[in-house]
Amino acid sequence: MAALSISTITGVFDAIVAGPPEGRPVLLLHGFPQTGLVWQRQIAALAEHGYRVVAPDQRGYSPGARPQRPEHYRIDLLVDDVVAISEELGWTAFDLVGHDWGGAVAWWTAHTHPGRVRTLTAVSTPHPGALATALRTDRDQRERSHYMIDWRATPATEERMLAHDARELRAFYAGKVPQDSAEAYVRHLSRPGALTAALNWYRAGRPDAAIGVVDVPTLYVWSTEDSAFGPAAAQQTEQWVSGPYRFETLQGVSHWVPEEAPETLSRLLLEHLRTQGEYGTATHTPLVDSPKR
Fold first, then answer.
1. Is the C or the N end of the chain the one with fewer CB within 10 Å?
2. Cα dihedral across residues 162, 29, 212, 238: positive or negative
3. pTM for this one?
4. How confident is the model at residue 279 (pLDDT cuts 50, 70, 90)?
5. Between these two residues, 81 and 208, which has the higher pLDDT value?
6. Domain limits of the chain?
């Protein structure tokens, strides 16, 4: 694995890169409060199997792509970053993987740019439409998501998370994330402006348009001990995918799937890419005539 700086029309993104340059391209998107480092085990596994893997630090996490205002973190702009990164890398089509907020960006990218996304793998994060439905109809999901309202307070949230040697920030990882990685995340987000930028993802407001059904081959990996996403949204996600769909549930695993269950996730990801390798193209069409919902 090596460090890479990707200069695009939307910003300069720090990234981890591995695998042969001619390999099938895979883009990995991290969530909060982490960086591209979250994927280190999956990066190694993919590169070993000949894939070209890039895991950027997303908008706000890369110092060269850190606008100050919350509205600069709208989902459409985050999707624009994905497209800009892929264009700078010379990728006309790629496999897309996302966890947590990276999963949300991945869902939206697959919906708005299906010709670019060969396959989608969403880890933890349900389809945004399924999540919206669960927030309206499921009390459990509303309770799980209440933190997102709390975190919109500024600068109180940043001050609280970083107080006492970032005690609250460290508590998020709860022994589920390797200690060296947790320390790296805390150092990264303790730098001036970094945590505010990461929290601006929550403060950016709702998308301007509704997301629809995704028609690319999709693997969705959800874990039973996820504190953020409950079973209602996870189970409804299938109704929002019209292409080939695989839903995997990891028993006893928390929200931090890439680091808590790295071997299992890597195996599922490799199986998905091999199975759907011939389906996704730059101009594919769904395998069914109409959405399931």
1. C
2. negative
3. 0.93
4. very low
5. 81
6. 2-206+213-275
